[in-house]
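job 3f2a | input accepted
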Amino acid sequence: MIPTDFNPAEWLTTSQAAELMGYNYAHVRYLVRKGLVVGFKLGRDWLVKRDSALAYLEEITRLGPAKHDPWRSGARQQHKEET
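job 3f2a | predicted structure (83 res):
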């Protein structure tokens, strides 16, 4: 479904987003399906909001190696306090 405030200049194809983010286009579609970046399917094509892709990339860069840490939400600290 096309957003009501749709402006084509603010949206990228999955190929464009993949190039911008340094990912494969299939991974970009996965990020959209998981709700990690804003996007939608238009016919057979996927469109990704440029700001959302850049925000995701910035967050992943900020996290660095911690992006792979399942405890980064603070659960590790809570676990230590409970034991």
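job 3f2a | The chain has one domain: 8-82.
job 3f2a | closed
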